[in-house]
Amino acid sequence: MTAAVFENVVKDYVTRPILRTKIAAVRGVSLTVPVGSTFALLGPNRAGKTTLVKMLLSLAKPTAGTINRLGEPIAARATLGRVGYMHENHAFPRYLSAAEVLHFYGGLSGVRSEDLPAKVNALLDRVGLADRRRDSISGFSKGMVQRLGLAQAILNNPDLLILDEPTEGLDLMGRKLLREVVRETKAAGKTVLLVSHVLPEVEELCDDAAVIVAGKIAFAGKLRELSKGRNLEAALQDVYETGATR
Amino acid sequence: MNLAFAIRTISWMVRDTFRQSLATKLFWVMLAITAVCTLFCLSITVTGETPPTGAGYDAGGFITPEAAKAIGEEKVKADGLKVLRGEVSFGFGLMTVPINRYKDDAVRYVLIWLAAILADTAGVLLALLWTAGFLPTFLEPQSATVLLAKPAPRWVLLVGKYLGVVLFVGLQAFVFVAATWFALGGKTGVWDATYWLAVPLLTLNFAVFYSVSAFLAVASRSTVVCIFGTLLFWLLCWTMNYTHVRLQAQPVEGMAGTAVLDVGYWVLPKPLDLGGVFYDAMRATGFSAPVPELDAVQKKGLFRPELSVLTSVLFALLVLLLAAYEFKSTDY
Asked: Which of A90, A100, A110 faces B146 most closely, judged by CB atoms?
């Protein structure tokens, strides 16, 4: 069973529609994310990591290739109800309160209306926003919005949790909370796909990894195979350089 | 995706739109305008029960009671002149206007002015302007990505947001009509139930043009483009509609381009015709229409209200389909 499968996936973005100028963001990626793994997607900036995540979430369409999500082709949107997603720059509607944000996104995720109040209360308590539940999020700091984003991502008890630069803006307690969530998800036999530049966090949480450089997979396998006992940063540096010259 | 989930998603989006309208204060701004109009209605007093003396309600041929006295009763009758005997006062008696109509007609005149001129033109344009930012805000990539990563298809989210805005404007139209109807009815004792037709007609008029705003929002994600694009489109449609009506009222022999005009008229929404439908519904043919050419077309029997409404609705549906297709194809 796989949580995500990419087969020969290509993604070109058209940047100037009239001149048909294209940017190749992903170039023939084949990758498998096994169920139950805590999988790190690593790579330099603009390597194509977020594009892969967006295609997995049906936010962007692949130009070529096929993608499966939780055993189904990505066209089957129902599987998105079993996915949680948190990214670095959350911008929830500013007119909502913290509780309203969770009710709204929980409802759209397919969480039953009768289950929502209890789940929302428990999660707000967990992410440390219980006392701000009725406050408009327009007055929230970035860290508070990120905590809310984390609560939103796990509200539907997802089988696949996708975290794209999740620690951006989080304080120490927030990071600790995030690590707890990842460990709990893993312990429940579910999958976490983590996109991050924070290597200590990756080393601490992840077992598997793929490194993408210039839109191509430069490494895929166990994280320990990547580092080979060395410092992960140095190992990644080598992969980035090798990948870039391929 | 099953129907129950689609309905549930749409209801979430509708609820979200109402929250948005409250947070942006638009809800209260529109209610405040209704309150001002209601106060205006409460300030109106109508006196006199003069029945129409001639055939029809033509505006000419009437004189003030003082003039009638000077002319003499016999001559007034012999010349078929109508004498003004009633009064409408506005602003709690600040301004008084003599009337030569039934009291019912005077009240109907005010209702038509409120619904057809104020609400159906100025109100709809202002609503289009004020709600233009709702969809672009919702489609901003940073907030849309989490929403679009939910299982609901994009077209359902778009339809939910569109319906939310239309229902919000529909609710405001309902409150406006109800408040002004009760205020004027309570003050004058005249209860004209046809005025309530303004609610569906105002909402329909708004819904047709808001579909264009929705398409522009999906294509550009810009509030400015939505505002100017929709208002320019409304102007284009009004001009097309007016030109077509005018040429129907006063045909110009051998004029080139009438086929193009016909196609444009039937394809595009018809704001003028929608106003005409309301005029008909209010039995307002005796009152001066905002566009006299429409009167002439109606008298010639060339006005096809059901086709005007149908084609306008079809246009809106087609534009919404295009918006849904564009939304589905867009990468976030």
From this structure: A90
d(CA A13, CA A23): 5
Q: Can you tell me whether residue A15 is helix, strand or coil?
A: strand
Q: Measure in Å the smallest separation between the Cα of A142 and chain B Cα atoms.
A: 13
**Which residue in chain A is spatially nearest to B23 when comparing CA positions?**
A95
Q: How far apart are CA A8 and CA A1, in angstroms?
A: 19
- Asked whether the predicted pLDDT for residue B158 surpasses 50, the reply is yes
Name every chain B residue with its beta carbon within 8 A of the beta carbon of A159. none
A80 vs B: CB within 8 A: yes
CB contact under 8 Å between B150 and A108, yes or no, is: yes
Task: Tell me the per-residue pLDDT of B69-112, one tens digit each, with 9 for 90 and over.
Answer: 788 878 877 877 777 667 788 888 888 887 766 677 778 888 88
Residues 6 or more apart whose Cβ sits within 8 Å of residue B276: B289, B294, B298, B303, B305, B308
CB-based contact, A81 to chain B, within 8 Å: yes
Report ipTM for this prediction. Answer: 0.88
pTM above 0.90, yes or no: no
Within chain A, residue ranges assigned H as helices are: 49-56, 98-109, 116-126, 142-154, 172-187, 199-205, 223-227, 232-245
- Please state, in angstroms and rounded to a whole number, the distance separating the CA atoms of residues A77 and B141: 19
